[in-house]
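Next up, a chain.

===
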Amino acid sequence: MTGAQAGILTDRNHTRARIANVSPKQIHELLSDDYIVIVAGFQGQTPEGETTTLGRGGSDLTAVALAGALNADVCQIFTDVDGVFTCDPHIVTDAKKLDALAYDELLEMASAGSKVMQSRAVEFAKKFGIEFEVRSSFKTSTGTIAKEATPSMEDVVIRGISLDRHQAKLTIAGVRDEPGVAGRIFSNVAAAHIIVDMIVQNASIGGTTDISFTIHEDELENARKILMPVVSEVGAKRLNTAGSVAKLSVVGIGMRSHSGVAARMFECLGRGGINIQLVSTSEIKIAVIIDEKDAERAAQLIHAEFGLARLLPTASTPEPRSAS
């Protein structure tokens, strides 16, 4: 079946459509007649009958959405990796596969640069409480299960590290600290469909402040063209831009109940001579912007600092079975 035949209804945002509704009537009918149903991922249909695509990783979203609509017993995402690791094994050779992690952790890791799952698929799974497993297409061993957080999950402070390369940093210096100015700046960026990641604003000094934010490096020239006239309009002093930076994020719901993670992370990077350009935090994530040339070494240092190679399973995550 195509996505449309499977009843996947989307909005009209072609190439990055969002699922509005799933009506799997035909799938139910075929299953009741003992058919095996294979649905094309990555696609849906607008109310007008136009075919849409769901963006990179859209097959993940298709699988999770159908599992929820069908009230499936199991949702398994078969991919080219064994599961979700504490860090990219190509960067950290002793990275460990995680047996289970919370939706929030995987969502932060996906948005921070981990390519294992599409972030919108994880959002959908969390919203509707759909457990799913990420596992290898080439092995019979179990993968990584994403599910609701359990109290014992907080025993592990840091669950994983993500790297997002090819980022760019923009700083608008000397912005008037007045209501509506930031909105004016970012509405112009949003109108060009440029996705902004981290945003950091300095404390106001003398009625002005600096606003820094990050975007993908491919959008840097476009953003520069858009913002140059805006800088003059809002009375800011200048626009500074820099490419070849990377975002390094540490993620773990254990941060909610453990202190000192940021200090330990910053000290580790300092000992390695790695300069931090921007910092952003959430309840379960600390992200820093660093030079891209330092990215892999920084990930290796942080992975070793928090002992992720020795990460032990918690009571909620049993020992992994070996491949047969």
In short: The longest strand covers residues 160-176. Helices lie at 25-32, 58-70, 103-111, 119-128, 181-191, 220-233, 261-271, 295-305.
